[in-house]
Amino acid sequence: MLSRFKGCLVGAVVGDCIGAIYEGHYAKIQTSLIIEKLKKLDKARENLKEGDEKPLSYTDDTAMTQSVALSLIQKGSFDAADMAKRFAEKFFKEPNRGYGGNIYKVFQELEDIDPEDVFKPAAKQFNGSGSYGNGGAMRISPAPLFAFNENNDTKLQELVTSITRLTHTHHLAIHGAILVAHAIDQSLRCDAEVDVNKFIDDLITKLKPLEEKYVASSQDEPPTKKSVKRSLDEEETPYCAKLARMKEMLQDESLQKSTIIHDLGHDVAAVSSVPAAVLSFLIATQKIPKLKDLNQFEQTIIYAISLGGDTDTIATMAGAMAGALYGIESIPETWRACCESVNKAEKMAEDLFNLNNRSSSS
Asked: Region annotation Disordered: residue ranges (predicted)?
């Protein structure tokens, strides 16, 4: 299990660093080109000396993940003021990590706001509807590790919701982060062989009550509070609808990436990137013929990136799921050596693992 904890956080960093190479390519990318690019890392690794900067840098995905993990580890529970402070400090120390434009205002207010009001800056965004981006989902991997021993879906959802609401208050952002957290949690508890239909059904079982509850509670809300309607979001329960669509896709031997991009999405909206990450992870559990010479973690990352779009975030989410299933040994040593902050991710995973051991023995 320690290997899986490490695999989760290191997988997220590696997915972020490699995915960042292709971010903004809003079309599918040939897997052969990605593989050729990755082969060049072998030479880069040979030339690395101790203390050198890593060839591949992380983005805001990893920067915020680190803040989540360190806050949970050092506080031993969710501390909104502490986590918000870490987000803001990290941003102003290194603002060029690829943060979304609108988040600047949130962090600016978090620097000076009363600790009791840390959720207010995000709640004011977009005329009060909040951001529906994937910023909550991209950083959520430490949460299922922290809550692993409790094995309580409701508590995990509450933790994820609190972490997400510091920057993203729209229900699509929150539900997307919850979906990623449950996918990681299920991966940690899976056997090596994944029953993809059961995996998806379990996710639907957990997401459906949340989506239906939102639909019921939003009937009388003003238009500014209602979901942004964008093609595939016309469904009242978009995540469950896309999960159900995935089951069909996984049975389609001639599935085209253009179909995935059209039906699931690949952009910065949570509802258009989280499903793509889940599908990339699940497709690789069945092994991808064109990538048959690679292990399943490698297949996950390369397939996620090949969808194009918000490649760093899709790959970081898929990488966390795959690492949680296959363990750190599945992540190529060259990738680990060439990606920034891998050692830090491994240490944080170990700390989260030890927290779980202490809580289970007390």
From this structure: 214-233
Neighbours of 63 (CB within 10 A): 22
Which tokens belong to 154? 């409701």
Among residues 318, 298, 326, 324, which one has the least CA distance to residue 31?
Answer: 298
Q: State yes or no: pLDDT of 226 exceeds 60.
A: no
Annotated binding residue 310: yes
312/66 Cα distance (integer angstroms): 16
Tell whether residue 59 is among the known ligand binding residues: yes
Average pLDDT on 235-250 reads 93
Are the beta carbons of 22 and 305 closer than 8 angstroms?
yes
Compute CA distances 213 → 134, 148, 161, 217, whole Å: 21, 25, 15, 6
The predicted pLDDT at position 228 comes to 45
Report the C-alpha dihedral over residues 203, 183, 266, 86, rounded to 10 degrees: 130
Mean pLDDT of 229-239: 63
Q: How many residues does the chain have?
A: 362
Q: Please report which helix (H) or strand (E) contains residue 31, including its range.
A: helix 31-46
Burial class (CB in 10 A: 0-12, 13-18, 19+), 219: exposed
Is 61 annotated as a binding-site member?
yes
| Cα 224 to Cα 18: distance, rounded to the nearest angstrom | 37
